[in-house]
């Protein structure tokens, strides 16, 4: 049994659209991971979503242009939607939760030495701050005395 080249080409286009849908949701999951790790303002989230959807449209257009000579076909849109849906149902929650968990642990391990160093330097830094305030206060007094002498000298002229 021989399969025609047209059917193979359409199957190839369907597979490409399916994978494109999965990749689009994966990229959006990366945005979701970033949002969970770093808090965002509402307008930043809106801007990120807008840029994501513009990029998605460009990606879909490029895939359609490359695979199907730019023709929009129903099975291509269905393939993209099916890829998005299957990835979202099966992999998305694992990817987001697992990535956030791992990245939080990595950031915790990286930040520990910094926290310990800050705790060790807290007393010496406080002492230096106290001395610095005294030095600045002394220099201000001396500067006021000099300024007063200069004004008095200028007024005598």
With helices defined by DSSP (H or I, 4 residues minimum), what is the helix count? 3
Report the order of strands and helices.
HHH
Q: Termini separation (Å)?
A: 114 Å
Beta-strand level of the residues, as a percent range? under 5%
- The residue fraction in helices comes out at over 70%
Number of strands: 0
Output mean pLDDT.
88
**Largest sheet, strands/sense/barrel:** none
Q: Structural class given helices, strands, pairing?
A: mainly alpha
Low-pLDDT sequence parts? none
Radius of gyration: 32 Å
Question: Mind explaining what this structure looks like?
Answer:
The chain is elongated and about 110 Å long. The longest helix has 83 residues, at 74-156. It has 3 helices and no strands. The chain has helices at 5-37, 42-68, 74-156.
Quick structural summary:
This protein has helices at 5-37, 42-68, 74-156.
Layout of SSEs?
Elements (H helix, E strand, L loop, with lengths): L4 H33 L4 H27 L5 H83 L1
Helix pairs in contact: 1-2, 1-3
What labels would you give this structure?
single chain, mainly alpha, 3 helices, 157 residues
């Amino acid at each position: 049994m021989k399969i025609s080249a047209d059917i193979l080409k359409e199957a190839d286009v369907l597979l490409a659209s399916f994978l494109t849908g999965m990749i689009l949701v994966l990229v959006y999951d990366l945005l979701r991971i970033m949002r969970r790790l770093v808090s965002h303002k509402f307008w930043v989230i809106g801007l990120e979503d807008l840029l994501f959807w513009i990029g998605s449209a460009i990606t879909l257009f490029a895939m359609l242009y490359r695979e199907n000579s730019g023709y929009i076909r129903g099975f291509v849109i269905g393939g993209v939607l099916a890829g998005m849906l299957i990835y979202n149902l099966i992999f998305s929650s694992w990817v987001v939760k697992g990535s956030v968990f791992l990245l939080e642990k990595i950031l915790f391990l990286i930040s520990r030495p910094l926290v310990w160093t800050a705790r060790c330097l807290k007393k010496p830094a406080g002492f230096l701050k106290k001395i610095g305030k005294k030095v600045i206060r002394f220099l201000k007094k001396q500067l006021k005395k000099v300024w007063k002498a200069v004004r008095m000298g200028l007024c005598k002229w």
